[in-house]
Design brief:
Low-confidence stretches: none
Number of domains: 1
Distance between the termini: 23 Å
Order of helices and strands: HH
Largest sheet: none
Number of strands: 0
Mean pLDDT: 97
Helix content: 40-55%
């Protein structure tokens, strides 16, 4: 599910605020690992 949410954020289909709370920490960590902010944009 985390990879799905990361892909949705990167493709501007979801915002970080729309992600369920139980996945937010893992999604944020994956986005950070990809060099992206919470909106899916390069840091």
């Amino acid at each position: 599910m985390v990879a799905l949410y990361v892909a949705l954020i990167i493709n501007s289909r979801r915002t970080f605020e729309q992600i369920p709370n139980k996945f937010k920490e893992a999604v944020k960590a994956d986005l950070d690992a990809l060099g992206l902010d919470e909106n899916g944009y390069p840091v």
